[in-house]
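Subject: for your reference before the review

Hello V.,

The reviewers asked for a structural picture of the protein, and I figured it would be easier to keep everything in one thread rather than splitting it across files. Below is the amino acid sequence we used in the manuscript, unchanged from the supplementary table.
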Amino acid sequence: MLSSVQEKAMCNLCHGGKVVYHRVYSGEMLCRKCFVETFEKRVAKTIGRYGLLKRDDRIAVAVSGGKDSLSLLHVLKKIEKNFPQATLFAVTVDEGIPGYRDEALQYVEEVVQRLGVPLVKTSFEEAFGVPLNKIIESPSFKASGLAACSVCGPLRRRALNIAAKNAKATVIATAHTLDDIVQTYLLKAFRGELGSSDVGLRSEGPVIPRVAPFRLTPEREVVFYAYVVGLPFQTQVCPNASNTMRSPIRKFLTEFEEKHPGSLFAALKSFEKTSRTTEKNLNICVKCGEPTSRRTCRVCELLEMVTDTYHA
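And here is what came back from the structure prediction:
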């Protein structure tokens, strides 16, 4: 929110536009035009700084229908115009959450048509033969003590990989923001995995690399960007999201950043110093043949647990 004084102020950059956004950590007071331009320039600089994308990449953008992923698609479509050798398409995964995902997919359809971006659709039903709602209803899942996100996350990533691979993508772009990246590093620290790999940075190997062009972009700026450029997006929260390990970390970081603006940038810089840049040693899953750090990948373990009950 802007104060009454800020609402009457002029943009720090162009000195002519009415202020619509206060970037607290930098002190910038920005008009709509300058906010959009600086937002998009930061994404382009992030891509260049970390070497996230190549000039001739075939980029699969993971879209869910939320503000982050649709904003990412919008920005990358603009950037891609300057790189004629690159191609861009969207990929969406229908996990099988009745009501919730149906609404989100409507927004995806609307935005890809507006931008003229091809859309590749897949689902848990198509990739694994069982939707998420059937998984979390199974007795085995209920007895496991796992949260729905613990199953949905690995399966969603695998379904996305399969769809991207079939569409001959060379890289997958995800809409993880600065907030998400720092949350993930903290989760790794609490699990004793900090330093095992970088988060959202490109690494070559047997798996299609995943990159996060919003790595240096706070989530609140993504929300505002979606609003000012007129993107429709789903605001309903996933009904399975309340019991995740990430929730209390998200709450803490949000409150800390409110009190101490710029803390997320400082935390990311510190985490980057401790992350290892070497490739993880990967094996091949004995069941599905996909790369994994173990003998049997987590996806196959989860599917074996659920499928036995589902088909019983």
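For the response letter, the relevant points are probably these. The CA atoms of residues 40 and 78 lie 9 Å apart. The mean pLDDT is 88.

Happy to draft the paragraph if you're swamped.

O.
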